[in-house]
Amino acid sequence: MSQPMKKSTYKSQRKAEAEKQEKQRKAMRKLFWAIGIVAVLGIIAALIFTPKPDPTAFEYDQLPILGKADAPVKIVEFGDYKCPSCAVFSQQIKPQIEKEYIESGKVALYFINFPFIGEDSTTAAIAAQSVYHQNNDAFWKYFDALYKNQQDEHTVWATPEYLVQLAKDNQIDVDLDLLKKDIEEGTYESEVNKHSKAANAAKVLSTPTLFINGEEFTGQFSDYAAIKKAIDEALAAGQSE
């Protein structure tokens, strides 16, 4: 027959059990703290080592292109069709780049809209995007026509009627009725807005702004010698890789 447990023995066992449970609780707290620390360190490491999106990693295949897509040097121009400086670049600098580098397959020129001068800057950009989506080659002819026929930046001149007539007068190879419809309905307004967001992400402050293989050209847009030097350096860098 079992004997009744002594009171002192019972208390000792209760104390031992309580101490055991407390040790287990402390061990679990330490484990949770360790797991928490590891998780926090993991998040910090991810923030530090995860590459951030590159704002100058342009979506070249979605932009108007002058030249060959596999050209080793890619130049992106941010421009506004109402910008007088962009007209200078179009008429004085672009032809030199085209003759010396684009025709030989060394450079491809791309264009991104950054319409900020007036409401009709956006209208002109929508018209140009309509032409681009119909015919990439026609885009560049229209691009030049817009700048050659550019009017005072302080007046509203890029109206739907003017933009369609300009395409007609310069024999731009597109469906003029579709062009008119795209302008009036703002078919490519969201695309133009996306271009503006890309400009903001790349911290573009003025037009024309050039990026050569993703690096902003910080010289004067009208200084062809400086642009040529930057292109040659980009070509040399590509050959050394």
From TrEMBL:
It comes from the Bacteria. PANTHER family: DISULFIDE BOND FORMATION PROTEIN D, GLUTATHIONE S-TRANSFERASE KAPPA. The chain crosses the membrane at residues 31-49. Residues 64-233 form the Thioredoxin-like fold domain. Belongs to the thioredoxin family. DsbA subfamily. SUPFAM superfamilies: Thioredoxin-like (SSF52833). Keywords: Disulfide bond, Membrane, Oxidoreductase, Redox-active center, Signal, Transmembrane, Transmembrane helix. This is DsbA family protein. It holds the Pfam family Thioredoxin_4. InterPro entries: Thioredoxin-like_fold, Thioredoxin-like_sf. One of its GO terms (molecular function) is oxidoreductase activity.
